[in-house]
Amino acid sequence: MHIAFVASECVPFSKTGGLADVVGALPRALAQLGHKVSVYLPRYKQTKLQAAQTVIDSVTVPFDDRYRFSSVVTGGEEHGVRYYFIEYPPYFDRDALYGTPAGDYPDNAERFALFSRAVLEASKILGVPEVFHCHDWQAALVPVLLRTVYGEDPAFRDVGATFTIHNMGYQGLFPSEILPLLMLPWDLFTMSKMEFFGQINFLKGALVYSDFITTVSRKYSQEIQTSEYGFGLEGVLRARAATVTGILNGVDYQEWSPECDKFSAAKYSVHDLSGKAKCKHDLLAAFGITDSNPKLPVIGIVSRFAAQKGFDLISHVMDRLAREDMIVVALGAGDREYEEMFLRLNRQFPQKIAVKIAYNNELAHKIEAGSDMFLMPSRYEPCGLNQIYSLKYGTVPIVRATGGLDDTIEPWDARSGKGTGFKFSEYSGESLLLTIRQALQAFRDPSSWQVLMRNGMNRDFSWNRSAKEYVRVYERVRQLRSANSA
Ligand code: ADP
Ligand code: GLC
């Protein structure tokens, strides 16, 4: 089968979060299963291509004010996957992918509408797939276009659309006046289509027009059908419940494993944990902590600093947490509020809380390898990748039981020696504190702690199984399509 991925980020070309890891790894796993996979991405300033080659000089994208002309560049084929980049410098040759700390770029609707239309046009020249697999609001117009303005295009009649929700918190909301500029019909501005409290909602369009909807864990697929987690779209999802499913993300263990990590100070494995002590020493040095007791447990954090990630809980209990015997090492960037909170905590407890406000892949790896525990107290978490990476590094996750965090972490039970981490349900500072204290208590017994570490290291979240589930979804999409077009 030929599947075309459409997404706004992909490792190693562009990344702000886990979406890039997924779009980097899943196509390869599908190619290994014998499928043909193309991946369409925007070409950003940060997209580094070794051997870029223009494959289409000009793709016409009509806008109401004037037509825009993008080109398509290929980055070649890797691991059986072909990468195509939509090039339109006025929109994509910018310092960031979506915006600055001050806010989103004001023309994001135009940017990703151009991207989506250009992908459809390019595919007619480069090869129309059987299924478009679109990710998040930035690619949400693809299914909308396919079933509206391109509805009569014979090239796409039998082509299916699968849409994966990586995060309901980002929907692509724009004023309705954007419709004519993007040359989209006004009737999309109705409640059964893309209208959402007086605005146009790209994500809602994808939920209405895709043949099948997936999200990135089983638990999250249920949560988003409730008002607590649906961000106002729970009704739309419930109406489509028969074509909504959760498929857990996998991990690329060539990238994230202590046995072959290119950034860590020493290699180690489930059979020989000794290298981890060196990684811990190296991590503390990288954060400028050189004179603390090496026996103190280190709790790592790597995250986008966003409300989703639950860091407001930390601020509630930090005074008490700082009295515990431990060190927190945090790496992240994003909302100013949380950046300032971490910097303040660092000033207040310089020996306890070390912080780097940055986006740094090498340090992210060092934190996975060198920490004893990994903290993700998320308010909601569609899947979460860092806790799954942590398991492989013997870095015991402490998580809130939501979405993929709940699906991937089993609570530790010292008596039976079963479980892989610590989790709490109630979204409160008290629950977080209690759970961290449980973890610190467990850490004091080195032999049972090693059982806990090894339980996690022995878990296998490689992509193969999830990729097979996606193939079943693509097959279902093809059946639905042929039933529809018959
Ligand atoms: P999300 O996609 O919501 O940000 P995930 O846990 O799925 O959360 O994935 C986050 C990915 O982004 C991981 O690969 C993580 O290592 C990476 N990441 C997040 N913040 C940073 C940062 N400040 N520096 C380096 N990598 C980061
Ligand atoms: C999102 C989610 C995260 C998920 C990632 C990849 O950004 O916040 O939980 O792991 O996408 O699917």
Give a quick rundown of the structure:
With 486 residues, the chain is an alpha/beta fold. The chain has helices spanning 18-32, 89-92, 108-126, 141-147, 178-181, 202-209, 218-223, 234-239, 275-286, 312-321, 336-348, 361-370, 386-392, 403-408, 429-443, 446-457, 463-485; strands at residues 2-6, 36-42, 53-61, 68-78, 81-87, 99-100, 103-104, 131-135, 160-165, 173-175, 195-196, 199-201, 212-215, 244-246, 298-305, 327-334, 353-357, 373-376, 396-400, 422-424.
Topology (SSEs and partners):
Blueprint: E1 2-6, H1 18-32, E2 36-42, E3 53-61, E4 68-78, E5 81-87, H2 89-92, E6 99-100, E7 103-104, H3 108-126, E8 131-135, H4 141-147, E9 160-165, E10 173-175, H5 178-181, E11 195-196, E12 199-201, H6 202-209, E13 212-215, H7 218-223, H8 234-239, E14 244-246, H9 275-286, E15 298-305, H10 312-321, E16 327-334, H11 336-348, E17 353-357, H12 361-370, E18 373-376, H13 386-392, E19 396-400, H14 403-408, E20 422-424, H15 429-443, H16 446-457, H17 463-485
Parallel strand pairs: 1-2, 1-8, 2-5, 8-9, 9-13, 13-14, 15-16, 15-18, 16-17, 18-19, 19-20
Antiparallel strand pairs: 3-4, 4-5, 6-7, 10-12, 11-12
The chain binds adenosine-5'-diphosphate (ADP) and alpha-D-glucopyranose.
